[in-house]
Structures are given as structure tokens and as C-alpha cells.
Amino acid sequence: MPPSTVGDAARTSRAVSPDSLLRRILVTLALIGAVVGLEFSFDLLIPDVALQQLALFAMVNVIVALSLNVINGMAGQFSIGHAGFVGIGAYTAAIVAGHIHKALGAEDVFFSNSFIVMPAAILAAGVVAAIFGFVVGLPSLRLRGDYLAIVTLGFAEIFRLVIATAQTGGDVEGPVAEFLAYLGGQNGYAGPDRNGVPQYAGPFWIFGAVVVCVIIAWRLKFSGWGRALRALREDEIATASVGVDPTRYKVTSFVLAATGAGIAGAMLASMRNGNPTVQPDQFTFAYSFDAITMVILGGSGSVSGAIVGGVFVTFTVKMIEQLQRFESVQALQAAYPALDLNALRMVVYASVLIGLMILRPEGIFGERELVRRKPRHRLNQAPPEPLPARTEAEAHPEEGTGPLTGKAEK
């Protein structure tokens, strides 16, 4: 086949059929309609404000798990400092959202203004977190396993402690010290006027971000890039021998994961009915450990597992805290003052993890997905190249003689 014909066939095979294009448009419109409907019906579906906050926080954790799954699950790089990237995104988004809200001159948070505030906050959080992901990922290329884990943990703790120990009272000298004092130190950042970070991230933005991140993670896993990441995870030397650049793929995986964590931080900082201040204690090692648990629990490398793990861990950790408000639980605590439900929560949580690791160490899904990915059949594929015509003697050489039989003709 001539080169021009090969190029035409490749372009034709990549063409999308009208039915497939129409189906994608309808699915996109349905998803947009669903998240818009959630924005205006969320109070009716979940009347309890505490449960609303829990559901939104679970969706934020789903984004955290999906982003960490790129490093720990697909690329096989063990990072335990993911909370640092979430914190960077949260502080960046809080600063941007607070100043834009102040510039708008609006005292209340309106849904219409969120289309001005949230895109800028999400973009800034993702970009800044991606820059730090590049800075952390580049020097960590020579490290693997425990050594890489220590580097990422050190980065997260440095970020948290630099803000937490910053001097906020009295005179401070230097632009760095002034900026750290502006972030509020241990008390946290509460907006440019100290009135709280505007809470624009409602169900539309948080559930919408989850849908977009799930689609991106799904397409990444089943793309050539995702297959290369998984190949590097299994055998880096063999994968590099066939032309895959480990440096490029590892650094890019760090940048992608950090970007997703920054977006999750933007949602966390502006979450409706959430904490109006961004505090360094929100991004301790415990939060990084929870993120790792979400990935391992659901199954490393599985998009469905990251979603299930994020929801399960969030509700497992927070459910007993919500149950403490019931009268029966308060009566039980009054009868038994020594009963610590927070300690009991961690015992139950740890027992579930131990049982799962013994019975199913690969996680709930392993690397499989809840929905099987069907191969796409394109209608406009180029037909196969026709075979050359053959004579009857060539088609059936055993029935006669000729050039193919090696026998002399009479």
C-alpha cells in the first residue's frame, strides 16, 4: 500500500461516526443537566447540613484518590505526601477566590458569581500545584520505593510546618515573612479581610469536577500513555528498551497527580458549609495516609476502585463523628463515660483494613473496572488490501504441476 494510502486509512480510522458523536453530545448534556439539577435540589435530597458537608467532602476525596492513583497506582511511584499538593491548591484557591469576591463587592455568595470566581480559583490552584509537582518529581527520578516516599513526605511536612510556625504577630521583615504572616500561621487563612474564605464550591462545581476527573482518569488509563505508565511500573528497564522515556513519563505523572490534588484543594477551600478558613493542620500526614488507603483499598490502578475507596474511607472516618449527635449515643456516653467513640472509630477502621489486606490484598477491584471498556468499532475504517489474483493451478498446487510444485511439466 502506498504511503499516501496508509495516511488516508489512518485518518479515516480515527474518524468518529455520526452516531458516536451524537451519543457523546447527549451524554455530555445529560451530565451537565445532572450536576445543575444537583445544585438546585441538593437541599431537598439531603436536608441535613452535616450530611451535605459529608457528601461534598467525600467527592473531594474522590478527586484526591483519582489523582494519587496516577502516581501510586498507574506509575508505581510510592508517594505519601499527597496532602502537601492538596494544601498548596487550597491556599492558592482561597487567596484567588477571596480577592475576586472582594473585587466583585458582593457580601453574599451567589451561584451566578461562582462562574467568575471558581474557574480562576481552580485554574490557579491546578497550575501552582503542578509547578510544585514538577519541582518535587524532577529530583526524585533517581529514587524509588521507600526513598521516594521519604522525599514526598518531607515535602508535605515542610510545606505544612513553614506555614504553621510562621510569625503572625508583631513586626515582620522581608517579603517571604510578610507573605507567610498573611497566610495566618497556625490560625489559618480566612480571606483578605479575615471574614472567611467565600464558599462558592457547591454541588455543581464539586460533582462536576468529579465527573471531569473520572473521565480524564479513565481515558488516561486506557490510552497509550497509561499503558506506558503501567509498563514502567512492572519493569522499567524492559520498557525503556522499547523506546519509552522513563524520565518524561515519571515527571509527567507527578505533574498530573499534583494538578488533580490542587483542584481537590480548591474545592476543599471553597466547599459550601465547610470550614471558612484554610488551616495547615488539615494537611497532615494523616490525610496523606487516608489518600493512600483510598487507592489501596479500592485497587491500585483502578479508576472505579479510587471512587469506591474515596467514598468508603470518608464515610468510615466521619460516620461515627456524625452518630455522636444522636440521643441514644449521647445516653450511652453518659452511662459509660470511659467509652471513647473516636478511638472506637479508628479500631473499626483499622480492623476493616487488616481484614481486607488478608482476604484480598489487591484491593476491592484490583486493577479491574466496575464497567468493562468495550473496543470501539469505527464505521469508516479503510477496507483491507485485496489479495493478488491467483490461477487455479496456483491455488491448488497438489492437483497439478507448475512453478509452485517444483515438478517438471510434461
UniProtKB/TrEMBL annotation:
<dbReference type="GO" id="GO:0015658">
    <property type="term" value="F:branched-chain amino acid transmembrane transporter activity"/>
</dbReference>
<feature type="transmembrane region" description="Helical">
    <location>
        <begin position="116"/>
        <end position="135"/>
    </location>
</feature>
<feature type="region of interest" description="Disordered">
    <location>
        <begin position="375"/>
        <end position="410"/>
    </location>
</feature>
<dbReference type="Pfam" id="PF02653">
    <property type="entry name" value="BPD_transp_2"/>
</dbReference>
<dbReference type="InterPro" id="IPR043428">
    <property type="entry name" value="LivM-like"/>
</dbReference>
<feature type="transmembrane region" description="Helical">
    <location>
        <begin position="21"/>
        <end position="42"/>
    </location>
</feature>
<keyword id="KW-0812">Transmembrane</keyword>
<feature type="transmembrane region" description="Helical">
    <location>
        <begin position="251"/>
        <end position="271"/>
    </location>
</feature>
<feature type="transmembrane region" description="Helical">
    <location>
        <begin position="200"/>
        <end position="220"/>
    </location>
</feature>
<feature type="transmembrane region" description="Helical">
    <location>
        <begin position="291"/>
        <end position="317"/>
    </location>
</feature>
<feature type="transmembrane region" description="Helical">
    <location>
        <begin position="147"/>
        <end position="166"/>
    </location>
</feature>
<protein>
    <submittedName>
        <fullName>Branched-chain amino acid ABC transporter permease</fullName>
    </submittedName>
</protein>
<feature type="transmembrane region" description="Helical">
    <location>
        <begin position="83"/>
        <end position="104"/>
    </location>
</feature>
<dbReference type="GO" id="GO:0005886">
    <property type="term" value="C:plasma membrane"/>
</dbReference>
<feature type="transmembrane region" description="Helical">
    <location>
        <begin position="54"/>
        <end position="71"/>
    </location>
</feature>
<dbReference type="InterPro" id="IPR001851">
    <property type="entry name" value="ABC_transp_permease"/>
</dbReference>
<keyword id="KW-1003">Cell membrane</keyword>
<keyword id="KW-0472">Membrane</keyword>
<keyword id="KW-1133">Transmembrane helix</keyword>
